[in-house]
Amino acid sequence: MHGHKFLLGKYVVLSKNRMQSASMVFTRVFGHAIPTNPHNTSINATGYGVDSAVTSIVDPQIILTNFHPRFTGVSATITNLAERHEKSFDIVILGDPLPVSTPQVRRWQFPRLFWKRKDRKVRIWHARRNSEMLLGLFVKHVLRKPLKLVFTTVALRHHSRFPRFLLSKMDTIIATTREAASFVDRCDAIIPHGIDTEIFTPPEDKTTAWQTAGLPGKYGIGIFGRIRAEKGTDLFVESMCRLLPQYPEFTAVIAGHCKPSDLPFKQKLEEQLKDAGLEDRVFWLGQVLAEERHLWFQRISICVAPPRYEGFGLTPIEAMACGAAVVATRTGVFPTLIEEGKTGHLIDVGDLEGLTRSLDWCLAHPLETLEKGRAGRDRVCQHYDIRQEAAAIESVYKNILTT
Length: 403
Known about the structure:
Layout: E1 4-8, E2 11-15, H1 18-30, E3 41-43, E4 49-51, E5 62-66, H2 73-85, E6 91-95, E7 104-105, E8 123-127, H3 130-142, E9 147-153, H4 161-168, E10 172-175, H5 178-181, E11 189-190, H6 206-211, E12 219-224, H7 233-243, E13 250-255, H8 263-275, E14 282-286, H9 293-299, E15 302-305, H10 315-321, E16 325-329, H11 334-337, E17 344-347, H12 352-364, H13 366-383, H14 386-402
Parallel strand pairs: 5-6, 5-8, 6-7, 8-9, 9-10, 10-11, 12-13, 12-15, 13-14, 15-16, 16-17
Antiparallel strand pairs: 1-2, 3-4
Helix pairs in contact: 1-3, 2-14, 7-8, 7-12, 10-13
C-alpha cells in the first residue's frame, strides 16, 4: 500500500499504510492507541457490553457520533433524535453509550461499520463536536469511505482556526439558531433543538409533585447544569441567600456535575449557604440521571438558567414542557424561547440585581408563576417539539442521500 499524507490545517498525519495512520488519529482523537476487543462485543444503551452479530450494525445509512463520556446537552439531543430517525433510516450511534435502544458501538470499533458494503453509495456522518468532525474527515479522506459529513453548530462566538478548518470541510452545516448561523461561513439549514413533549409533561399538581422529592417546603426552585461560573451557579446561590429567608414555602435545588477543577468554586458556594443558614433550604443533587430529569422538572415551579454564555440551552425548554416558569439570561435560545412576563422572565447576562428582582416577584406570586409555567408548556409544544426537529433533519438527510 502506498504511503500518503493527510493534512488537517497545521496537523499532519504521515503513514506508510492506513493502519499506522489510523493508530495516530486514534491517539489524537481518543487519547490512546487502538485497543483490542477479544470478546467481539458492542455496547448497548445502558453502557454494558453485549454480544452482537456484526452484520446487524455494519451497514448504517446514518452514523450519529457521541464522543463525550458524560450525559450533556448534546447527548440529550442525540438520545431524543436517534429512535425517531431509526423509523426512517438505518442508524448507529458511534461513541459513548446513551440511554436509547438504537444500535451503538464504541469509538474504537468504528471499522466494523465499514467492513461490509451493500448498495450504499454514500453514508452520512453526523457530528456535533470537533473530535467527531476530525474522525469523520479521517474516515472520508484517509480511509476513503463514501461519507457525507454533516455538522450541527450551536456556538454563539467566533470559531478558532482549527474548528474553522474542520467546518470548511463539512458537506452540510446545520445551525440551531440564526445567531449561531451568523458565526459560520456557510449554513445549509437552521433547525432548533426540540425535546420529547411526551416524556417532559407537567404533573397534575406541582405541589403534590414536589412532595415526592422528600424535601421541605411547598414549592421548588432549581438550577440545572454544570457547577461552574459560566453556568451562573454563583448568581443563583447569591439570589437564594437574599430571597429564601423571606419565602419559607420555597426550597431550592442545585443539580449538575462538578468537575474536580471546579470544586473550589463549589466549596465557596457551600460556605456561602452555610453562613446564610440555608443548608436545609438549598440541596445539592449532583448529576441527575437522564431518565430522572423530567421528574425534577415536574417537581419544581421555577427553573433558573443564568449562564454567562450558552450555545443553545435545552434545560429551560425541558422545564417549561413540565410546567415550570423560567427565569433566564439573554443568551442561547432563551430570548426567543421565553415570552417576557408570559412564560417567564429574561435578564441581562451577569445581572444579579435583575435576577433577584425577577425571582422575588415569582416567589411572591406562586399562583401567577404556576400560570406562567402552563403557558410555557404550550409554547414548547408549538415550537420546540422533538418531532419538528427530527422531521427537519431527516429532510436534510434525504436530500443528501438522493442527490
